[in-house]
Structures are given as structure tokens and as C-alpha cells.
Amino acid sequence: MKKYIKYIIALLIFGCSSEVKLWEPYDEKPEILENSSSKNKKLQYKRIQSLSTDKNDLIRGYEKEIDLFLKKRYNQLEPLIVEKSIPEIQKQIIDKKFNYYDLTLFYISRIYSIEFNNVTYLNSIISLNKDALNEARKKDILGNDNIYSIFGIPILLKDNIGFESLPTTAGAYSLRQNYTKDAFITKKLKSEGAIVLGKTNLSEWANYFCSGCPNGYTSLGGQTLNPYGRKIIDTGGSSSGSGVATTSNLSSVSLGSETSGSILSPSSANSLVGLKPTIGNISRSGIVPISSTLDTAGPMTKNIIDNIIVYNAINGYDSQDSYSKYSNDIDINNVMKYDISKVRLGYYKNFYQNDSLYKKAVDQLKKDNINVIEIESPRVNVSNFSKILDEDMRRDLKSYLSTYGNKNLEVSDISSIIQFNNKDSLVRAPYGQGIFKKIISDTMNMEDFEKLKIRLMKEGNKFFDIPIEKFNLDAVISLNNYHAGYAAVAHNPCLTVPIGLRQNNEPAGVTFIGKSFDEELLYQIGFYFEKIFRGRVPPKNSM
After folding, report:
1. Least enclosed by CB within 10 Å: which of 227, 240, 417, 538?
2. Is 260 known to be catalytic?
């Protein structure tokens, strides 16, 4: 009965003049039962829809615009926007084929079309910016003549990145009212003219909360689903919603964050280009943390040039971030004109022998006479890696909540979050709180912790430096997020680039890993590879 009362109230609020249909929760028990036999335990869901939020809040205030746009403009603009790069979109706006208002409303309407259909929905979006169309109108008045600019481009932020117009939740019910200040990188985006379209779903607390729980599940956003195989293929995590939304063309580009694999994993799982930058190149101020030692934000896009444009927009020194470094923007012309024949790349023997897509990618480089050298993974000791995350998160999350958290929050640290969730665990923590409980029960003294960080950084660097120095390499070629942990502790940048789909329709990517602060070289390699290989395959909902 409550469901129908809620539906009637929503009808009164939305009005009856629009044909936009409201979202109605449905019985998902048959789907959950079907997935309970999945061989992949991370696809054995307990929840798909969110029990704690009203999905209709996403489009509330936009329903009339959506209705009219779908009837009058959507089909006309779809071929001009879907799968188009930022430079292509900017060129069409400069040529007056459409404007920033049209572009922004296109994405809002597309979000409605995909996310409000119970056959196609992905749960990729947690919230939408109610001022996005007004901001787009302002951008149209100002105008822009730079095709390599983020100006006027709608971007989605992973919902652990501060944006003052929407709560910053990390997907957690306890942060549902965490209205806070813009993160440093959000300020950078705004200063460059980007339009923050909204926030994406993720793995709750950036995948460091519950043990063995599905990638892409949060109590606020529900279960993110992969458009290449809803409930069949993993989304990757923790930047799950950013990956799913971007590959589905629900925005031009998005931001994710990574501690170990959280950009690389969902980017490769969604046929995207994802950059995990060198620690210190991108500010972490105002981002809900796991580890001040390893955290970074980074762009997730459909191509290399868009990735560079976003990286240049958020790159910059932040005095509030102890790891922050001064670094230069990437020169797009240098990337496009780079002579790849100078590069020496190492490829891993085990991947080459056992993964057909990886082999196909390396063989294409060989065919193009690129210097590729077979290497093997050296044995290094990265034991106790998770202790870095435990010790940092206990301190860093408490510091974030006291510095950036809304003053009306009911939680202040991990212990209070556990207690808060225990009051209604079926809604707030259906997969338990195993990692959070481990963090507060298994502590390490500061002296041992500092020694651990030094050891792991040395071992991570050895993993890459041994083959790089032996064969005089510029970078190595990994697969998906398989070497993300080593790159994390080494503070090395990683760039994943799509290499096609497996037989089960699952996307994959090769991941170029270089030395710290070698982002431009990785982009040069990635741009060349993207040009000769063209591995991105859009999901069917984007075609």
C-alpha cells in the first residue's frame, strides 16, 4: 500500500502533462534467485534495486524538458553525439549544429531512457545536478572556440568526489546528507568551464567496506550492472558507475578514483580508456579517502584525446595535499605527432601465451615493427598490502569527516559508521561490514606501519624496474588491472586501452605502465595503439 501512496504523491508532484513515466520498484526475487547459481560469487546479488532512495528523484524537475526533447530532438542529435569525442562535439557546437544546452539535455534524456527502463537500467547514476541546464545556457552565452577544451562538456563524478550542489556519499547511507564543499579537482573542472552533470554509483566506500561483496553495489545506488551483459558480466570496481555510464554514453566523460585497480578495473571491464595517474599529479583534497598513501583520481573516457583533455583540466598543485606535485599539462600535439619507433615495450610471457586478446594486441605492435620484448614477472614480496589501506583509512576517513564532512552527519569515524549501519543492516549493509570491522580490530603501530610502506614501495618498484632496466624498456604492457597493486605501491602511472571483447562479450584492455610522472609517454603510446588497433566496442545500448 505504501508503494502506491508514494506513486500517487509522485504523480501529483510531477504533474500529468508529461509522458515521462515514473520508476516503479518491481519484484526482483526471480533475478536474484537466478544469479544465486552464478559461478562468479561477485554476481550472486542480495540486492539490485536500492531500498533507501527514490529513483524518481534523479529526474524530478526535468520531466517536461525530457519529454519534449525525446519527441523533438533526441533522434536527430543521437548520431551527432553518441560515441563522438570531445573535439568532434566541440566542432559541431562551434558550427552551430547544436549547443551546450542541447548536449546536456541529450545526456539527461538518455539517462532517463536507459535508467528508467526495467529491461535496460544499469543503476549507474546516484544523483543529477538540478542546475546543469542553467549552467549549459550560460556556457552557450559565453561561447568557446577551442575543440580541445572541457568547456561546456557534461562530466560525471564518482560519488566520493566533493561537489557542493549534491551530497558526497561514497554510496553509504550514513553520508546521504553529506553536502560539502567542492573537491579541489571539482573546482578545477568548474574553472575550465565543465558542467558537472551528476554523481555515479560505485562500490560502497570505494570497495573497502564489505568482504567479497559485488563490485558496484551501494546501499544508496543499488547494484550497478554492466551493459555488455546485465547481471552476467562484472562491472569492475570501485569506479563502477563511472565506467558503466561513460561507455553507455550517459555523459561525455567521467572521473573515477583509484587506490589499487579502481579506475583500471571498470575501464577495462567497460571498453574504456582509463588513466591512473602518478600519486601527487592529481589532488585528493575533498575526496572521500581510503589511503592518503595510494589514492588518486583520474579520467575515464572513450578515447585517448578525451582522456588527456580531462587530465589537463584536473591536473594541478594543491597545497592541501601532502603528496601534490607541480606538473605540466599534456601537449596534445606532441602526443599525436610522437615517433613511436623510439619506444621499447615489455610484454608479459604468461599473458601472451594464455590470453588471445592480449596476444592479438602485442602481435599488432610486432607487425608495426614496434620494439616489443618478452619479459616475465619478477618475484617480489608485497605481503601485507592491505595493512596500508587499513591503517590509512582508519585515520584518513576520520580526518575527512572532521574536515569536509557535513556538520550534521551522524558518524565521525569507522566505529560510529559500523554502529550506525547495525541499526538497520538489511538496508545499510546487506553484505556485512567485514573490512570495516577488520580495520578497527587489527591495528599496527606507526613505526611498523612506516616500515611497511617503505618495503612495499621498494618491492613494487622492483617489480617494474627489474625488467625495465634489464631490457632498457620505456614501459611494460599489462592486462586489465592485473598489476594494479604493484603500480599502486610503486606510485607508477597506468593507462588502460580497449582491446575488444571476449567470446562471452566481456571487454578487456591492455594496460601500459610507466615510471612515475611518465603520463605523457603513456598517452603517446596509447594514442598510437588506439589508432592502429581500434579495440573499443560500444555496448548495444550505445549503438
Report:
1. 538
2. no
pTM of the model: 0.96
Structure confidence by residue, pLDDT tens digits, 358-369 = 999 999 999 999
Q: Which of 462, 425, 439 is nearest to 388 (CA)?
A: 439
DSSP 233-291: S---SSSHHHHHHHHTTSSSEEEEEESSSTTHHHHHTTT-EEEEPPTTSB--TTB--S-
How confident is the model over 164-186, as pLDDT tens digits? 999 999 999 999 999 999 999 99
From 55, 158, 276, 462, active-site residue:
158
Q: So what's the pLDDT on residue 3?
A: 40
Question: Could you please report the per-residue DSSP string of 21-39?
Answer: PPP-----HHHHHHHTT-S
The reply to whether 470 belongs to the active site is no
| pLDDT the model gives residue 18 | 62
Q: Out of 238, 268, 291, 478, which one is annotated catalytic? A: 238
Residues of the chain with pLDDT below 70 are: 1-18, 542-543
Q: What is the DSSP string of 362-396?
A: HHHHHHTT-EEEEE-PPP---TTHHHHHHHHHHHH
Does 262 qualify as catalytic in the annotation? yes
Q: Which of 127, 262, 267, 324 is catalytic?
A: 262
Domain coordinates of the chain in residue numbers?
Answer: 2-330
Instruction: Check residue 19 and give its pLDDT.
Output: 85
